[in-house]
Design a protein that fits this description.
The protein is α+β, with helices and mostly antiparallel strands and 196 residues long. The chain has helices at 2-11, 14-35, 42-46, 86-95, 118-151, 159-192, and strands at 49-51, 58-60, 66-71, 74-78, 103-105, 108-112. The protein is built from six helices and six strands; from the N terminus they run αααββββαββαα.
Length: 196
C-alpha cells in the first residue's frame, strides 16, 4: 500500500487532494451544526446563502437583511435594505434544510419556527440525509477534479501506475464519505432522542 501512495504522488498532489476533501467534510460539519438543530440558531439563518440572479453569485442572508428573534416561535427578517431580494430570501429559506415556511409582508419576512414534534424531528433526520448526499456529491466532484488533473499525464506513466493511482483516489474518497456518513448517522440518532 505504501508503494501505491508513491505512485499517487507522482501523478497528483495527495496532500492537496486530502485538503480539498477535508474542506468539504468541514463544510458538511458546519451545515449539520447550522441547519440541523432542535434549538433556534440565528447563525443558521444569518449565514444561509442567497443565490443572486444573473450569475452574481451568492451572499449570506445577513449581508442583505437583518435577522432577529421576535419571540421563541417567530423569527423576523427585515429586508428593507434589499426589498427586491424578498422573493429570493423566501425561496432560499423554503428550500433550505431549516424546515421553515416563511411569509413575506412587504420587506418584512415572518418565519414561524417549527415546534419540536416527532414529525419535525423526522423532517430534520430526512434533511440530514439530504445534506449528506450533497456532501457526497461534492466529494465526488473533488475526486473528478483531481483525476482530471492527472489524466493529462496518463501518457507519462504505466497503465499499472495509473490503475493504482485511481484505486488510491477512490479509496481515499470512500474513507471521507464513510466519515461523513458516520457524522450523519450520529446526528440522526441525536435528533430522534426524545430526551433532548
Amino acid at each position: 500500500m505504501n508503494r501505491d501512495v508513491d505512485y499517487c504522488d507522482e501523478l497528483l498532489d495527495m496532500q492537496a487532494f486530502k485538503n480539498d476533501l477535508q474542506h468539504e467534510l468541514n463544510r458538511y460539519k458546519q451545515e449539520i451544526l447550522d441547519q440541523l438543530s432542535l434549538r433556534v440558531n440565528l447563525n443558521a439563518y444569518e449565514n444561509l446563502m442567497i443565490k443572486l440572479p444573473d450569475e452574481q453569485g451568492s451572499v449570506p442572508l445577513n449581508h442583505i437583511a437583518k435577522v432577529s428573534l421576535k419571540n421563541p416561535q417567530m423569527l423576523m427578517i427585515n429586508a428593507t435594505m434589499s426589498p427586491d431580494k424578498v422573493a429570493l430570501i423566501t425561496g432560499a429559506l423554503s428550500k433550505s434544510a431549516l424546515n421553515v415556511n416563511p411569509q413575506a409582508d412587504g420587506a418584512m419576512i415572518h418565519v414561524p419556527l417549527p415546534r419540536v414534534t416527532r414529525q419535525h424531528r423526522e423532517s430534520l433526520v430526512k434533511n440530514a440525509k439530504n445534506l449528506y448526499n450533497q456532501c457526497f456529491e461534492r466529494l465526488r466532484r473533488v475526486r473528478k477534479h483531481h483525476h482530471d488533473g492527472f489524466a493529462k499525464k496518463e501518457d507519462s506513466v504505466s497503465k499499472d501506475e495509473l490503475v493504482k493511482t485511481i484505486k488510491v483516489l477512490d479509496e481515499t474518497v470512500k474513507e471521507y464519505a464513510r466519515i461523513a456518513e458516520d457524522m450523519m448517522k450520529q446526528k440522526q440518532k441525536e435528533l430522534m432522542n426524545e430526551n433532548l
